[in-house]
Write a structure and sequence with these properties.
Layout (H helix, E strand, L loop, with lengths): L3 H16 L16 E4 L2 E5 L12 H14 L14 H14 L3 E5 L2 H14 L10 E6 L4 H8 L6 E6 L4 H10 L8 E6 L1 E2 L4 E2 L2 H10 L3 E5 L14 H4 L8 E5 L10 E5 L1 H10 L1 H4 L6 H16 L1 H21 L2 E2 L6 E7 L1 H13 L2 E2 L1 E3 L9 E6 L6 H17 L4
Parallel strand pairs: 2-14, 4-5, 4-6, 6-9, 9-10
Antiparallel strand pairs: 1-2, 3-11, 7-8, 10-11, 12-13, 13-16, 15-16
Helix pairs in contact: 2-11, 3-11, 4-5, 12-14
Amino acid sequence: MYSKKLVENIENELEALKGAGKFKVERELEGAQGAEVNIAGKKVLMFASNNYLGLANHPEIIKASKEAVDKYGFGLSSVRFIAGTETIHKTLEKKLAEFLGTEDAILYSTNFMANLGFFATMTNEAFGDETSHLDAIYSDELNHASIIDAFKLCKKENVVKRIYPHGDIPTLEQMLEEDKSKNYRFKIIVTDGVFSMEGYLANLPEIKKLAEKYEALLFVDDAHAVGVLGKTGAGTPEYYDLHGKIDILSGTFGKALGGAIGGYIAGKAEIVELLRQKSRTYLFSNSLPPSVVMASIKALDLLKEELELLNKVIENSEYFREEVKKLGFNVLEGNHPIVPVMLSDAGLTQKVSRKLLDNGLYVVGLWFPVVPEGAARLRFQISAAHTKGQIDQAIEIMREVGKEMKII
């Protein structure tokens, strides 16, 4: 039974969140994810989803998922190392490694679990005859929440954590130079490939040079880039001509590649095998259901067969970004389907988001603590599923609301 004091504390916390404008409202969708969705019986344009290639409701993805249920059942009721590995799991891992240009890959329930599992395993485990060790992590300050939380699982006695200002290559090099003489077991440079709040790309070529110079492992979370960037959609490494040259990649099938669930670590075979043996978020989580596995295999196939999807999302993104800028909105520069429209004020951002939805355009407002104080924004996310007509409709709604709210 809850104590009365605990209930009061929880109620006070919820009221504080509401008072500070930080209370999150989950809008209920009615039906499939797509360029348009139904909310409260009303059809609205969807510009707030990670469904970059439009595969979340693609008929071939749905067909593959249904066939998997018919053949393999709903779930496997087991973790991978007991009775939860079907041949299709190994097929997906092999296909994923080939796609990313790595030696091997390992599936996790989510990208979040993949990141937690990697850092907890690599930094907390003693290898071979080691009885003690000290590792160093160098992380961009804007890295995703799953990376930040993963660091919390790294034992203080085992890991030195250093955070460098976003994209600040000179400061990163200064840190590495300062630690050059220290007897660290190994060093890991950690960065997002695409930073999800801004749509900015990491400067992988320069970071890669530093990794080689200072003999550090390079870890890239490419969740928002795979399926979007690079000539075949293999992400930021391919975009920068570094395909197959990054030590460790993490990512997800929950965004561009079908939009359901499932994460992975891909990289050197020895690291992947170590994770299979010792990563607790892998060993003690149920294996991905067959419907997700088969749909993810199909997503990789579709990306290869229908490159026009990749071209379409880039084309749509460039068009939307330029047209919104022409209206007079403050839009962050970039070349990714994440298009942030900066409004600065949190209260204004909340009001504009609600007004846009009332007018048929669903886009999410972001404010502190999700983004820095004074940097509130609307984060538009463009999809290959959007038609030019739908994008023009969204732009017109932006024009109307912008003028009404005296933003433009």
